Backbone:
């Protein structure tokens, strides 16, 4: 920590990484956390996939072409990047560093392999794995979205089984069985880390 002008301590922001299978509700939980917790900002990831209905460029993702994405890789601009379900996703390092150095916590919503990579580069980051009550519930949620073909659902379910087997690599595992309860648990977990930082 650094000293502020009054002689007290200025807490450096912490990076929280939200990950879990597709369709588990990460986006909903992320939006709720941002509305519930002060001094928390969202780092908008880059992706080569097409926007879903209702998604906005620069708000939900930076939607870029494959050529632009590869240029950012070549320039070393990503904290992490990965291929997920055939599309590319990446987190811009500079945007994360800018916020944490200003004392703001940052929330990332990324894939499981990206989260594990972030932990290697930033060991102080907190990995939060969101899991469904069961694979059957997850498949039902994916079908209710009506945004993927049958082939995409099959691929996402296959990937979900693999991702859930890696949950032990995360700092906390949160079961999204009831939205209100899960939002409260996520908020409590994040604030517990913040309070621990302030009291250290």
Residues:
């Amino acid at each position: 920590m650094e000293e502020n002008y009054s002689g007290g301590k200025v807490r450096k922001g912490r990076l929280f990484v939200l990950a879990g299978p597709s369709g588990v509700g990460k986006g909903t939980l992320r939006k709720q956390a941002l509305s519930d917790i002060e001094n928390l900002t969202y780092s908008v990831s880059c992706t080569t996939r097409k926007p879903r209905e209702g998604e906005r460029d620069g708000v939900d993702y930076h939607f870029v072409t494959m050529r632009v994405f590869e240029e950012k890789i070549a320039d070393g601009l990503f904290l992490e990047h990965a291929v997920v379900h055939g599309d590319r996703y990446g987190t811009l390092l500079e945007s994360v560093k800018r916020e944490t150095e200003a004392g703001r916590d940052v929330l990332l919503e990324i894939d499981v392999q990206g989260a594990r990579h972030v932990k290697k580069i930033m060991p102080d980051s907190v990995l939060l794995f969101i899991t469904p009550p069961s694979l059957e519930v997850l498949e039902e949620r994916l079908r209710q979205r009506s945004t993927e073909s049958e082939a995409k659902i099959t691929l996402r379910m296959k990937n979900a089984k693999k991702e859930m087997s890696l949950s032990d690599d995360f700092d906390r595992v949160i079961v999204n069985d009831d939205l209100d309860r899960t939002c409260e648990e996520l908020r409590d977990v994040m604030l517990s880390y913040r309070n621990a930082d302030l009291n250290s």
